């Protein structure tokens, strides 16, 4: 076994590899970009080396700098993780030329599987079933159109150098072929520098089932299958193992085909053979075809670990250091069922747009494995993949594992950025998915229902009102309210672009009603804290005027402070004044800045609350008279805008 290895990656996979290093007593070396200097993987590693830069090209793709870091720190081997340099045969050659071990397959095995057309031809030769199609070098459009005709519509055009669904087009009718071909080729040229495509039969009712293999360079074993049919635009969302409905015969046939594929290229280490499966008529041993082989550890490897009890990273290190395969095929078996859900910072209603932000809170529930590269306080930056974590569960059966997945997602707490958590929760409750009826079109078909935003629960809004106003902190009635006399106050909150007026009525210690719109919610304080209509308070987090009430779904509620409106609507639109005595917390502008109506110019803390002071009109800041930290009187002028005719 190695003494020291370098992990040429970041995020959750770097942390995942370091976990195993620690367990095996192997020293770990992290590399990092400038923006990742304080990242979790850097903190976890024994040694860290800066690569500089921010973008992958300036950092994690700098093979030479990574090899130099390995040599300087005494690492004997490099683990590439996934993505970045993991499937780059030139990097493998360079690592070996430097006298180091690449923890993965040989450069020639990666090359053999690098292009889809060559890989398909090679697999067909090795006796692995491949999707019927054309994968020749000749690329004349008329010839490709004739091949498509011969294969029979619908057909799929795929970039031979493709990945991530890029350069791929489904063509249902001959008349759509020419345009689809041109756009696939141009996308492939831009994305991969290679316009070549192959044409294959489009499998209707397709399921994506892949087989985990592990080789020692000569022999290989398989660690059963994963079903990755829950995809959105060819990107996996929830994966599971084993595949629902898998039969003994089909598993044996797929496993043997995958082992043949790996052995045909002298595969060493962890790899995945992806098959497309025709699910229109149940799973049949003659209904699966090779799509491609991923010559690295996959994102979704934990579901395989969960059902087999194997630590795949440990196997990678052992085999790369020269040990034989840790066990034979007959020693491997499946226990129970496992799911993995990919938690992303993304704006689902806006079309799954990647999001960024500082994670003001991040916590995972017990009873699930959470593979993550970030902690509370970390930033999801625009430089890298916006994955926050993988949430993995295991249960004795599919039904048990699915219930655990729902609970784990409901118990996952993220504040500070939008996430796909509600979408994952909806997917985990989807009826067809629950019944094991999966295919790659499931998400697309039911997208509207899966992304529908449910009406927020009045009890959760009531709780948000209480935490935002600080009323939850003491069971005593509001300061300033007379004891034992029902007193009311209106609080307006916004959820997305919907505002809700809530009437808070205090009856005495620990007894408050919050009327959300028309719906009264009884908030009562007892030995176990607050309850809302009898339900225990949910975990919550407040930052300024924003409360996050965790749960399924998590609710983000913003307090619309009436003083903001007053400050904004003030008669003298030139002056921003303190509406009450208080402490200036923050000032966001300086003289000369252009501001727009409604911009937040400063924050005043008064009466234990933060008040945003807004610009009443567009203009230029003439003068800032307040500084953060200073105490001011009511009516004090904090900021003056240039008079309108000056601007
Ligand atoms: P990429 O390398 O770009 O990810 P793949 O070849 O792995 O492309 O295919 C991505 C996804 O496209 C598969 O998971 C599957 O959902 C779908 N797909 C690929 N080939 C076919 C096919 N012949 N018929 C139906 N669906 C397919």
Automatic annotation (TrEMBL):
Keyword terms of this UniProt record: ATP-binding, Biotin, Ligase, Nucleotide-binding
Q: Where is the Biotin carboxylation domain?
A: 1-448
Q: Which CDD domains match?
A: biotinyl_domain
A Pfam family reported for this protein in Swiss-Prot or TrEMBL: Biotin_carb_C
The residue ranges of the ATP-grasp domain are 120-321
Domain Lipoyl-binding positions? 566-642
Its cofactor is: biotin
SMART domains given for it? Biotin_carb_C
The record's section on SUPFAM superfamilies has: Glutathione synthetase ATP-binding domain-like, PreATP-grasp domain, Rudiment single hybrid motif, Single hybrid motif
The name this protein goes by in its record: 3-methylcrotonyl-CoA carboxylase subunit alpha
């Amino acid at each position: 076994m190695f003494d020291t290895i370098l992990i040429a990656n970041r995020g959750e996979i770097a942390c995942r590899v370091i976990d195993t290093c620690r367990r095996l007593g192997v020293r770990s070396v992290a590399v990092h970009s400038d923006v990742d200097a304080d990242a979790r993987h850097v903190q976890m590693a024994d040694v860290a080396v800066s690569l500089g830069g921010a973008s992958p090209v300036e950092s994690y793709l700098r093979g030479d700098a990574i090899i130099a870091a390995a040599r300087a720190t005494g690492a004997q081997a490099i683990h590439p993780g996934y993505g970045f340099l993991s499937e780059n045969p030139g990097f493998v050659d360079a690592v070996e030329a430097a006298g180091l071990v690449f923890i993965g397959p040989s450069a020639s095995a990666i090359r053999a599987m690098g292009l889809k057309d060559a890989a398909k031809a090679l697999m067909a030769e090795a006796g692995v079933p491949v999707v019927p199609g054309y994968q020749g070098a000749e690329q004349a459009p008329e010839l490709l159109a004739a091949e498509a005709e011969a294969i029979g519509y619908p057909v799929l055009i795929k970039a031979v150098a493709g990945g991530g669904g890029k350069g791929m087009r489904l063509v249902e009718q001959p008349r759509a072929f020419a345009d689809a071909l041109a756009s696939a080729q141009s996308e492939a040229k831009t994305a991969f520098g290679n316009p070549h495509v192959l044409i294959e039969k489009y499998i209707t009712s397709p399921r994506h089932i892949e087989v985990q293999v592990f080789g020692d360079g000569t022999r290989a074993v398989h660690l059963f299958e994963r079903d990755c049919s829950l995809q959105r635009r060819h990107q996996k969302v929830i994966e599971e193992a084993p595949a629902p409905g898998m039969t003994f015969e089909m598993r044996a046939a797929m496993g043997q085909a995958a082992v043949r594929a790996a052995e045909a290229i002298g595969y060493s280490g962890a790899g995945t053979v992806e098959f497309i499966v025709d699910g229109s008529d149940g799973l049949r041993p003659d209904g699966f075809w090779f799509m491609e082989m991923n010559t690295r550890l996959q994102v979704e490897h934990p579901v395989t670990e969960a059902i087999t009890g194997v630590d795949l990273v440990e196997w990678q290190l052992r085999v790369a250091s020269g040990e034989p395969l840790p066990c034979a095929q007959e020693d491997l078996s499946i226990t129970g069922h496992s799911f993995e859900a990919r938690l992303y910072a993304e704006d689902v209603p806006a079309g799954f747009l990647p999001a960024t932000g500082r994670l003001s809170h991040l916590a995972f529930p017990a009873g699930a494995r959470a593979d993550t590269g970030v902690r509370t306080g970390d930033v999801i930056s625009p430089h890298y993949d916006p994955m926050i974590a993988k949430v993995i569960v295991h249960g004795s059966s599919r039904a048990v594992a699915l219930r655990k997945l729902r609970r784990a997602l409901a118990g996952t707490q993220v504040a500070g950025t939008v996430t796909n958590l509600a979408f994952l929760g909806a997917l985990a409750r989807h009826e067809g998915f629950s019944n094991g009826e999966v295919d790659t079109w499931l998400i697309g078909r039911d997208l509207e229902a899966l992304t529908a935003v449910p009406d927020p629960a009045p009890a959760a809004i009531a709780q948000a009102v209480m935490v935002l106003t600080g009323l939850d902190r003491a069971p005593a009635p509001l300061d300033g309210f007379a004891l034992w006399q029902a007193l009311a106050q209106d609080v307006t909150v916004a959820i997305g672009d919907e505002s809700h007026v809530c009437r808070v009525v205090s009856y005495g210690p620990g007894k408050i009603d919050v009327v959300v719109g028309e719906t009264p919610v009884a908030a009562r304080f007892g030995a176990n804290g607050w309850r809302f209509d009898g339900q225990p308070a949910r975990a919550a987090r407040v930052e300024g005027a924003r409360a996050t009430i965790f749960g399924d779904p998590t609710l983000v509620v913003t307090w619309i402070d009436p003083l903001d409106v007053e400050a904004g609507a003030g008669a003298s639109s030139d002056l921003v004044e303190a509406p009450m005595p208080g402490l200036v917390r923050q000032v966001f502008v300086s003289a000369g800045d252009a501001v727009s109506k409604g911009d937040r110019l400063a924050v005043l803390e008064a009466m234990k609350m933060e008040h945003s002071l807004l610009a009443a009109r567009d203009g230029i800041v003439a003068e800032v008279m307040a500084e953060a930290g200073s105490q001011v009187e009511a009516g004090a002028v904090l900021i003056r805008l240039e008079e309108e005719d000056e601007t």
